[in-house]
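Q: Here's a chain of 159 amino acids. Please give me its 3D structure as tokens.
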Amino acid sequence: MLGGMSEDARSPAQYASDIDAARERLVTFVSGCTDEQWKAAPLDGDPRPVGVVVDHVAHSYEYLAGWMRQVLAGEAVTVNSDEVDALNAEHATQAGAVTPAGAVEHLRRSGAAISGLVAGCTAADLQAGDGQVERFAKIAIRHADIHRAEIEAGLAAPA
């Protein structure tokens, strides 16, 4: 351990690059969606159409970045599943008419904002809030890839 970070820890620039790469993988997926796929709800137990799920990732970048800013400002941030579920439910009611172009624009705008925030951090900033900033960066990366993979699998599954 060096300065509280493991030797294999990624730099803020690496996290930012990974956020951008995951976002662009999702953008590429959106670019290949048909109208029928965009409107389908292929995830077991999730009634949201693909478009709403994709836009949800863009929306999550916004609240993750907000939490990061709070932590970096020295504020305590407590996040629980009920709070995240409420954010997701509110978003689902507002995003039903999102178009592929609108979702891509939202992904690029909110994704660039969070990756820029992370890129501007120092290694010490990533550890703020007992490592919360770093955990939120990791979530931003995984979140886009997890939803993309789930949607691809759901669309490929036999009806």
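Q: Can you summarize the key feature?
A: The two ends are 50 Å apart (CA to CA).
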